[in-house]
Amino acid sequence: MCPITDTHVHFDAAPPAIAACVQRAVAAGVTRLLAVGGSAALNASASLAARNFPQQVRLALGWDRDQATKLPPGMPFPPTDGLPLAAIGEIGLDYHYHAETQAAQCQLFGEMLREAEVRDLPVCIHTREADADTCRILDEHGSHARRAAGTLGVVHCFTGGQDFARALLDRGLYLSFSGIVTFRNADSLREVARFVPADRLLLETDSPFLTPVPKRGVENEPAFVVHVVDLLAKVRGITRDQLVEQTSMNAERLFGPWPTPTP
After folding, report:
1. pLDDT tens digit string along 70-107?
2. 228 — phi, psi (to 5°)?
3. Element (H, E) at 43
4. Distance (Å, rounded) from C-alpha 60 to C-alpha 124?
5. Residues 51, 80 contacting (CB under 8 angstroms)
6. What percent of the chain has pLDDT over 90?
7. Angle (deg, nearest 10), helices 40-52 and 15-27
8. Dist CA 239 CA 65 (whole Å)
9. Spelled out in words, what is the top-level CATH class assigned to the domain 4-255?
10. Average pLDDT over the chain, rounded to whole?
């Protein structure tokens, strides 16, 4: 059976809880996870998960939009502590919750994109109500080589319309869909999920947030990405196995391979 890949997981719990979460994911067939940072706390917990579960968990570190006015000038990139990075993230813009810090967010987003180019890594991008600035900053600071290769990164938890989706795809980005696509009022998002080319589609939970149907009311976790799988397979008119194989292959193309599990 092809492994299921959850390309956006936030670990914010104590080590025993992280271990139990990973074990439940593996039992559900979700054997490849991308642990994503964005703040000092999230970077630390993502690193802990990657260190403790190197066969299942790869690592993304960065400074996200809500850190734009909190970081001191010249704040260095988060320490990797010798762990290999699969991506820079979470980074990006959010004008819904942080409209008053737009200028600082744009500056930090640009800095993170330049860091990714120096390290030759893809990026994990958050964007909400900031379509124009997202595209502008990607054009100004995104890696031209990765853009041309179609591996600039991913806009995670995509909730935009088809025009924005097309603009991001044209810039060499993948689009990832979370539990939101299972919500009752998400018909327009499901239409976008049907539109995205098969080789640019990714899956995620964005756990511990955005729990999918039918698990609403409990904290989200990587094991629940199977419900996103089932919904997207139905929407796209393909089998579950086809959806899993394609999205896991896409994840490896973008982030590099996960280790082969030992017997």
Report:
1. 998 778 999 999 999 999 999 999 999 889 999 999 99
2. -70, -40
3. helix 40-52
4. 8
5. no
6. 93
7. 60
8. 37
9. alpha beta
10. 96
The count of residues in the chain is 263
Rounded to an integer, what distance in angstroms lies between the CA atom of residue 68 and that of residue 63? 8
Evaluate whether 193 touches 223 at the Cβ level (below 8 Å): no
**For the segment 213-259, what is each residue's pLDDT rounded down to a tens digit?**
999 999 999 999 999 999 999 999 999 999 999 999 999 999 999 98
> Nearest Cα to 158, choosing from 101, 209, 202, 122?
202
User: pTM for the whole thing?
Assistant: 0.96
Q: CA-CA distance, 176 to 160, in Å (whole number)?
A: 11
Domain ranges of the chain: 4-255
Is the distance from CB of 57 to CB of 25 less than 8 angstroms? no
Residue type, 22: V
Tokens of 200: 């640019």
In our burial notation (b when 16+ CB lie closer than 10 A, e otherwise), range 190-204 reads bebbeebeeebbbbb
